[in-house]
Amino acid sequence: LVLSLAWLGPALGDEDKDEEVVEEEEKEKKEDEVLSDEIKEEDNVLVLHEHNFARALSEHQLLLVEFYAPWCGHCQQLAPAFAQAATELRNESSPARLGKVDATAQTALATEFGITSYPTLKLFRDGNRTHPLAYTGRMDSQGIVRWMQRRAGPSATLLQDTDTAAAFVNSQDLVVVGFFKDLRGEAAQAFLEVAAEMVDMTFGVAEAAELFQAYGLSADTVCLFKKFDERQTNFPVDLARGLDTAELTRLLRVHSLQLVMEFTNETSNQIFGAKIPHHMLLFLNKSSSEQLSLRDGFRAAAGGFRGEVLFVVVDVTGHGADVLPFFGMTPADAPTLRLVKMENNRKYQMEQDSFSDSAIRTFIQAVLDGKVKPHLLSAEPPEDWDTRPVKVLVGKTFEQVAFDETKNVFVKFYAPWCPHCQAMAAAWEELAKRYKDREDIVIAEMDSTANELENITIHGFPTLHYFPAGPGRKMVEYKSTRDVETFSKFLDNGGTLPVEPPVSKVREQPPCPGQSPAPAG
To answer: Can you give the pTM of this predicted structure?
Structure first.
């Protein structure tokens, strides 16, 4: 509009108008535009700022708002999916709408809602701006749509008689039904909260006495119906404690999985999203009928560990081929078994593979009881590992170098594919050359994708640890700037950075999720 008026001015006979006055009027009009509570849209997404935010809340019963930063890569990646979800919801005349706020420009809103990372999604219901709900769904268009649909309508279908219940139970491979004597009671309300969150499952609810009888129930119970493994799994509501939403969510996640999963592109999210603490893996070649027969004993062992150990079959010639390097394996190693402790990625291996159900059960129980040591990967040390400026460590040589009481050892733990590691490689090499004549200082590196250590777990790349000389097996994590001069100050000061006068800093921009202000792999 402003540009149109600027171009039309001369045509309307105002040729002599001072250019500065025109510019001032344009500026005022733009300011009025920002101060207005008018709500504009981009790809069906409401464009929100501090002057139209209240209006948006009053006009839309359910409003999911993305707080973003224009420079944030995660926000840029989300944008098409967010717009697609907004379009789908609008096309189905849903009361749910999507909006977005540039939190770097709208700092008052960012402060009000405690935005510390990007993107952050919050749901505002019925105009309430004091208690928005954090978004917990998937970051794709389907995930956003399903999450909003659950909040726009009833989260569970009311089943009123045996015919509708039977049709509902048979409608999908997996459904959840809550049977409650009082649908207004606390247990039923907690169940509906779970149903609203678990948008990848279908939920029903019933209170009719005939339905309790039809499914063999006498008290409030949540039932999981499946067309695989057990047909009906019951989770009775504890009369004393009531229904714990977190525990029910966990139970449904665990029992919704097949007793033995196959690792595929379609199942990988389920496998890792179930949060089961241990995974028992059978690596086999599916083209071999002899190896396929090993699944019988594997499955027979699985029942007693449900919820504690997830059993997974990995085809070494299929989707599973991509994970073999993580275990230091090749397809020729199949068939073989590995148990993984998920909290630290420790891997356990039988001394001699035995595929009977009793042998598998015995092995798993021994690992759970702490009677088996982890199987640690180690590459072979290069012949010239200690003649280069940067010493190359592997699993089997790490102890003797890092804990040498006569040396101060500075180690970079890296992954070959990590761009942050690649970016600092030149600085690490220069640092090593700077200290190559110091007998008491060693600059080293270890590929943590090919080497593992029993008492040190690496969670991100690069990770830098300093092992000072002397007794005690001490270790100091380096967390400062990754440049040669700062590294040198750290080393020259005995493994700490000298205290320097404070420098006033510009307020740091919040990081994207999974990132930190300083580059981290």
So the answer is: 0.65
